[in-house]
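To whoever picks this up:

The parser on our side crashed when reading a file containing two proteins. I've narrowed it down to the boundary between the first structure block and the second sequence. Both blocks are reproduced below exactly, byte for byte. First block:
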Amino acid sequence: MHPSTRAAALLFAPLVVVPSTAMAAEEYGTYRSDVSDYPVEIEPHFSFGPENVYGASGYGAGLRLGLPLVSGAIGRVPDNLALSLGGDILHYDNCYFRDDCGANYLMVPIAAQWNIFVARRVSLLAEGGVFIYKGFFDGCRPGDGPGCAPPSDFGILPTLAVGLRVHLGPAASLTARLGYPTTTLGVSFF
């Protein structure tokens, strides 16, 4: 590239970049009342299960879908009510007093989720519902000795959780959920 062409490109680049950046900031910079009206939320996440299931903490990953059913506003604060469902796979090491057995659980959450968009970059969630779970045991069978009895391999648990989203833009956010029977950390796409 000729030096004068390069100088002209550097001189005129701000005329192209600055207005497009300003338009993007203006589009998401103002607080929109329709922020709670999205078609679907897809949330891949890491999962953590406390020690109350198998004698050790569990870890894994999962995916949640949020389907907004009703959107509105509390005064000037947008909110919605969504159906949250998905699946998590968690691995638990060690039985209650033994270290040579473990379990894997498929957990399917079905919950009502209330989302409140309190600020342009922050929204809160509260949810309640059920987890349907199925356990798969990889070394702990009945009769393996004291302390190594498998827990129930199928059932339903109640779920309660609160969470926080930090919005990275109009279509993505970091999402943290603290609850029972799992705690999650992931990214949501709207």
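<<boundary where parser fails>>
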Amino acid sequence: MTKTSFYQEMRQKSDPVWQAIFNHPFVAGIGDGTLSQDRFEFYLKQDYIYLIDFSRVFALATAKSPQLSEMAYFATLLNATLNMEMDLHRRTCAAFGISEKELEQTAASMITLSYTNLLNRTCYEGNLADVLAVLLPCAAGYIEIGQKLKSAGLPENQFYQDWINTYASQDFADLTQWLKDKMDEYAENTSERYKSRWFNFYLTSARFEYLFFDMSWKKEMWPSEIAL
């Protein structure tokens, strides 16, 4: 019988969160092409701001890596985020009449700010295994979403097709597999205390993934009671 890896254990324990993500109307709307453009634009702007900090985390992880091979991989992930993932956002937004300058000047919503603060704080205060745990829900989750949507059939909307194809690509899957393998490597012969710590990082990030899609569906910057 094949032993379940530590990453697989985290993924299985958090499956209710992932099922909520897969079934969220925002994600489902990309898959069937029914998501309204205004919601998608809101998401693209907030995700662009998110990816700027996500890139910073990869840069910090590169600096924290004790091995050259780890440094090389985080540098590759940084390049893929800056020059592949963010370029998709820039091209799509340009087609919607949203300039790169407007993208970069987008104010972060409450959820975006909270999520990126979690990532940055973990990277500054934690070790490399902590960073892997907090990164994996975004990195691996988007691959899973993209592949799941593509397997159900692509929508007619070209922008949603591009989004799905980007995250369902083998290139992204290969990069993400390294993160999973490295997480499993750190989990070998370690205590349950550390495994619990890493799962809590992973679960918190997974919950933020749900909240990010939900925020984009509602187009909510801050709760209406305190929005200015």
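After patching the parser it read the second block fine. The radius of gyration is 17 Å. The mean pLDDT is 92.
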